[in-house]
Design goal:
The protein is of the alpha/beta class. The protein has a domain of about 100 residues. About 5% of the residues have low confidence.
Length: about 150
């Protein structure tokens, strides 16, 4: 008789290398009970960390997710949904990310450090120590490279 070793957690890990790229997937092996109603959608919980820097918790039913730093042009309408199209901040939070938005006026080493620290302290951000970065305008690349003219 063959004895199967139980998984240590309710997920299955798959890893594969393609050339120089290592791809790791974590596949769920447990699903929600469909006989119960789904959990409610969370409400918007936006925290302004400093002028031009703000944290939005995930807006998915799961309620937690990976961290993302979003670099955007200056805006006063970061929580708007115009004609059915959400702002980038809302869109990424709807996809399940804990998002820190950094506007152009606040961009600098201090703002990026503040963003990563906010995500590391956020209880809705998992996994810790890993953060994505999305740039919504080309001038940021030049600023990050230390070029004076934008």
């Amino acid at each position: 008789m063959i004895q199967r070793k139980p998984l240590e957690s309710p997920e299955k890990r798959i890893s594969k290398s393609i050339g120089l790229i290592n791809i790791s997937l974590i596949l769920p092996t447990m699903y929600n009970d469909i006989s119960k109603p789904p959990p409610p959608l969370p409400s918007i919980q936006f925290t302004e960390l400093s002028p031009g820097v703000g944290l939005l918790l995930p807006l998915s039913r799961r309620g937690h997710g990976p961290g993302l730093v979003l670099l955007v042009p200056d805006t006063t309408e970061h929580l708007n949904i115009a004609e059915g199209v959400p702002s980038p901040l809302i869109k990424w939070a709807e996809e399940g990310y804990a998002v820190v938005q950094v506007e152009e006026r606040a961009l600098g080493e201090a703002a990026l450090k503040q963003a990563t620290e906010a995500l590391s302290q956020c209880d809705k951000c998992e996994p810790k120590g890993k953060v994505g970065l999305v740039c919504r305008f080309s001038q940021v690349v030049r600023l990050l490279n230390g070029e004076d003219e934008v």
